[in-house]
Input
Amino acid sequence: MTDVFGDLVGQDEAVAMLRRAAASAAALLRAPVAAPAGGHDDLDALAEEYDGDPAPAPADPGAGMTHAWIFTGPPGSGRSVAARAFAAALECVHGTGCGTCPGCHTTLTGTHADVRLVVPEGLSIGVNEMRALVLRAASAPSGGRWQIVIIEDADRLTEAAGNALLKAIEEPPPRTVFLLCAPSTHPDDISVTIRSRCRVVPLRQPPPAAVAEVLVRRDGIAPDVAEWAAAAAQGHVGRARRLARDPEARQRRDAVLAVPRRLTGVGAAFDAASALIEAAEAEAAASVVEIDEAERTALQTALGAGGTGRGAAGAMRGAAGQLKDLEKRQKSRATRAQRDALDRALVDLAGFYRDALTMALRAPVAPVHTDTAALAGAGAQKWDAEGSLRRLEAVLECRAAIEANVKPRIAVEAMMLALWRG
Ligand SMILES: [Zn+2]
Output
């Protein structure tokens, strides 16, 4: 019953748009296409040729297919899920995204020969990676449908990488499709020129009820746990699932939400800062240790560690360089993982002060953290709306400072002091 779009929670409009585009793309593939006259066979030209009806342009230009797309939305809204689902629909042998055919299946499991996924592991996507990608994307699709490149976190493109991508988007090979994911179309996230070449698929923050529903239906989570997790995760589907299933994730959240209670003085504020930083480091280290080790072993095997003979000495020199490259990549990934872990903690903390603020204002909204609602209520009485707002702002400023490359420990210490002083 559920097709490839079934995992997109609370995104009815975006799904309708993508379904129309997939149908339009399938129609293009079915159309008997003569060699294009001007040699510039972009999709618009193909669409016109296919559209046997000579006079009218399609009523809804947004319904058609195009070469470049940007999926935008807040973290956890399902940008990359949407991009992958759309890729599957494009590669689907039925052209619908049935979810069961080989095209759908291999796309969703990441093994389709014509679908490439770029997930930046470090803080940015470099120009060399992008050039190699653009080059490969220019080849004809082996499966006869579309050559697809999905770029997660396209906001982490370096300027040079963005320019390399722009060239490919400006003159796309006829069967190549770029799917970019970014928080927004703000120029800080995506260059204006790239944006102008793309169709935007806006995703919204899914409502907690929709998130809870999918946790129950797809993951078999008990309804009360699903409701609690969906509210606590503030619309982030992946985070809600982790909270519902992973006791360690719940413990980390509990530790973060204990912070407001522990801020009893300057010393306690510094202690709380240290604890938060160290917890993020530990969480990040645990998340990358396995893959780091696997990569090192794979590289050593590929380099024939322990080999002897004439070529061995030269191979060892090259090997040292490759190991150094790998270490650099792994360090960059670890930094990213630490920042992500710290940011999750800050979002939880912001939720607590948001609860205090809405309670002080007597706003008729449900609390983010139902399990610390009493504590937030006590805070609301003590601090009033103004004090709650100042504390919420301190947390948000800390997030912004870290995003702007302030050293995390310094930003978190400043935040804890502000939270304590009020
Ligand atoms: Zn299919």
Q: What stands out?
A: Residues 34-41, 45-62 have pLDDT under 50 and may be disordered. The longest strand covers residues 176-182. The chain has 16 helices and five strands.
